[in-house]
Design a protein that fits this description.
Layout (H helix, E strand, L loop, with lengths): L6 E5 L9 H15 L3 E7 L12 E4 L1 E3 L6 E3 L4 H10 L3 E4 L5 H12 L3 E4 L20 H16 L4 E4 L2 H11 L8 E3 L6 H4 L4 H8 L7 E5 L8 H9 L6 E5 L5 H10 L6 E5 L3 H10 L2 E4 L8 H8 L4 E4 L14 E4 L3 H13 L3 H13 L3 H25 L20 H4 L4
Parallel strand pairs: 1-2, 1-6, 2-3, 6-7, 7-8, 8-9, 10-11, 10-13, 11-12, 13-14, 14-15
Antiparallel strand pairs: 4-5
Helix pairs in contact: 1-14, 7-10, 8-12, 11-13
Length: about 425
């Protein structure tokens, strides 16, 4: 389907130069939409690194960085951006968070009477443990209940919701089926930059990194934090009979704990933490690896897994969360139960598999089917649906009414800074 040129505004609490899954998703869809002829704008907090030069049409809202946060916190009002939004007259607003700049997008969708689309990148209640530093007298279960209340309230004001996987869509409808119907939630996975992640041959990448030809090496990647389960992966490697080398890309507040675990298990010299590396370098690591291993159980999609698959690298993952929509055991990867013994056995099985080349090729084909261009077209279909639905609602309403938002409930959300900064 071909579309007339759209003016699209993405709202995100995180953007470059930061690195995480949401940043990758926004960047991917922005690139795809621009390549297909649309005018695309990004609204994001001003980065901490004031020397960083953003691309054209990325608008940074004034922000502060809280002492206990690694992400900038956008201030609630920016008069310059208000004038810009009035000038560009967007056809669609797409927010990647339900709080922070997501609230700003919701407000502007009501003012401009344009559809609001929300991508459910993160299952926020799974991260209620982050609130312990702010709410020491409130249990994680109570925090999860508060989060569900906030999310439900936000979803009621969205015109359409995007889930990155079928698993996530089902979970959204199970949790919020009282305010959403099946027609309100579409599955659109983030497009994979297959050009970048498929361009290196394994031998070339290993030579560049200085890896020995016969040395079995696992690679993993992600934020070094509790929910990513890197401690389980390290424990699994310790339980393997022939221990491979493990390289974990990324950084985070759990790094000292993980380094201490490596020392305690006697894995010094086998487990490495290179820290954050640039995208092109990540592609080299993925191509060079014998296996990509990932133990996170709560991914809505699992972008890094699909990026590794684009490199033709077999993956070993726990069969939980959105990842299980894309990785099939013994077809394009190996799956495991979410415990160290099972993961250790899965890693050993993957290293011994006879049809390694077949596994690599099927992994590559899976990722290629989720390229940026194809996923962008799917997202444009969602936009067309949301815009058509809003036009139909306007035709029914022959005189101005309250846009469906009962403003008895329009008091400001009492969001904590911690929740606003759950920008994963």
């Amino acid at each position: 389907m071909r579309y007339e040129k759209l003016h699209i505004a993405h709202y995100t609490n995180v953007y470059k130069p930061l690195k995480n899954g949401v940043v990758t998703s926004v960047e991917s869809f922005r690139k795809g939409q621009m390549e297909q002829g649309h005018a695309v704008y990004v609204v994001a907090p001003s980065p901490q690194d004031k020397s960083y030069v953003q691309e054209r049409f990325v608008f940074n809202i004034a922000a502060v960085t809280l002492p206990t946060q690694s992400y900038p916190f956008a201030l609630p009002y920016d008069p310059t951006l208000t004038r810009v939004l009035k000038g560009i007259q967007p056809d669609i607003l797409h927010t990647h968070h339900p709080v922070g700049l997501g609230r700003f997008a919701r407000s502007w969708s009501e003012r401009l009477r344009v559809p609001l689309v929300f991508t459910f990148h993160t299952w926020y209640e799974d991260f209620s443990h982050y609130f312990s530093r702010y709410l020491p007298f409130v249990s994680e279960e109570q925090v999860a209940g508060i989060i569900r209340f906030w999310i439900r309230k936000f979803l009621k004001r969205c015109d359409h919701v995007v889930a990155p996987s079928e698993y996530t869509r089902n979970r959204i409808l199970d949790a919020y089926g009282d305010v959403l119907g099946g027609e309100d939630v579409s599955v659109v996975a983030t497009g994979i930059d297959t050009d970048t992640f498929s361009k290196y041959a394994k031998a070339e990448a290993r030579s560049y990194l200085g890896w020995k030809p016969g040395q079995k090496t696992l690679v993993s990647c992600g934020r070094l934090s509790r929910e990513k389960n890197f401690d389980l992966l390290i424990d699994a490697v310790a339980r393997m009979e022939e221990k491979p080398r493990l390289v974990i890309l990324g950084d985070g507040d759990l790094r000292p704990t993980l380094e201490a675990q490596v020392k305690q298990l006697g894995l010094e010299g086998l487990v490495e933490f290179p820290g954050n590396v640039e995208k092109d370098e990540v592609a080299r690591y993925f191509a060079a690896a014998d296996l990509f291993a990932f133990a996170s159980p709560n991914e809505t999609q699992g972008l890094v897994v699909l990026e590794a698959m684009a490199a033709g690298t077999p993956t070993v993952v726990v069969r939980e969360g959105g990842i299980k929509d894309f990785v099939r055991d013994n077809f394009n990867g190996i799956t495991s139960d979410n415990d160290a013994d099972s993961l250790a056995r899965a890693l050993e099985r993957a290293l011994r598999i006879e049809d390694m080349e077949g596994l690599r090729e099927r992994a590559r084909r899976t990722a290629m089917g989720l390229n940026v261009a194809s996923q962008t077209r799917r997202l444009l279909d969602v936009y067309a649906h949301a815009m058509g639905r809003q036009r139909a609602q306007r035709e029914i309403a022959e005189f101005p009414v309250s846009s469906g938002v009962g403003f008895a409930e329009s008091h400001p959300d009492l969001e904590s800074a911690a929740f606003t900064q759950l920008a994963f």
